[in-house]
Amino acid sequence: MLVVVIGAIAAATAWTALGPTTTDTAQATTTPTRTVSVVETTLQEMTTLDGTLGYVEGPAVVNRAVGTITSLPESGAILDLGDALYSVDTVPVTLLEGDLPMYRALQRGLEGRDVEQLERSLVDLGYDPDDEVRVDEEFDYDTRDMVKRWQESLGVAETGRVLISDVVFLPEPVRVASVPAEVGQPVQAGSQVILTSGSSTVVSVALDSADQGIVAEGDAVVVVLPDDTRTAATVTSVGTVAIRNLQGEGSYFEVEVTLDDPDAAADLDEAPVSVEVVTEEATDVLAVPVSALLALSEGGYAVEVVHDDGSTTLVGVDGGMFADGLVEISGSGIDAGTAVVVP
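Above: the chain's sequence. Below: its structure in token form.
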């Protein structure tokens, strides 16, 4: 019987089904010099994709006041509900939450979804301490009084009326991507003051059409940052329309990956990263180093099992998945902790 060591067998493939052995056992007489234990583990085949980590472009903040810009935020700042976006003639322009843009002045007697947005934002900010305001689409006396409390906190005239230039409604907090305006600059209504992005970083991947099926929305992946830090992430969207590749032949799908920890790459923008995707997995399997797997001349594979008295026996095994220098095995008498020879 001829025994061949096949320690390099996993170099060319990550998932190979090996045929069953035709020889169950054979006696070996050489005392082993190095052994390892069979382990129970999970083997994974990984595919690495190239991606770019950055921020999703957000809406531009358009000025509606006339005057001189007296304050601006710094690039990279995160602005949340109630924060001042900037100020004109020392009057702050406040970020409030809402999908409907601020398109008119709001005052008592008006009704509409913009009124409801205003009420909900100011209630959330704590300007209705006695729970007097009913959040609806009607601007009533209680709404007016709440607006006055808010204006008092800002140090502006307590008119109970919200001008179109006082507020910017945006659906979520934003990050300041860039500031095209300057402090001291005179501005007119309609000029862009701040360019924004989403407040969380995401990884954009151009997934080759041939690889379309390897990821799906909700998949857990690992992002490798430029400093080789590895951080958990989740696939949050996979495009359904193929985009022609302008740099060559073929097409790709847009994939978006969101870091599970938003602070893991807070200072990075337009940074190249890698995304590791599990494409095959074998869970709770028995495995040994590839070098422990032996090819038998009559066909099949075996490992050299070490007994308590130091003697060894060749035990036939079936092989499965290869990953990270290990190979999945199964066979009679093979259990976690079984000692095998590593040539």
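The chain has three domains: 3-43+282-341, 47-55+200-280, 64-190.
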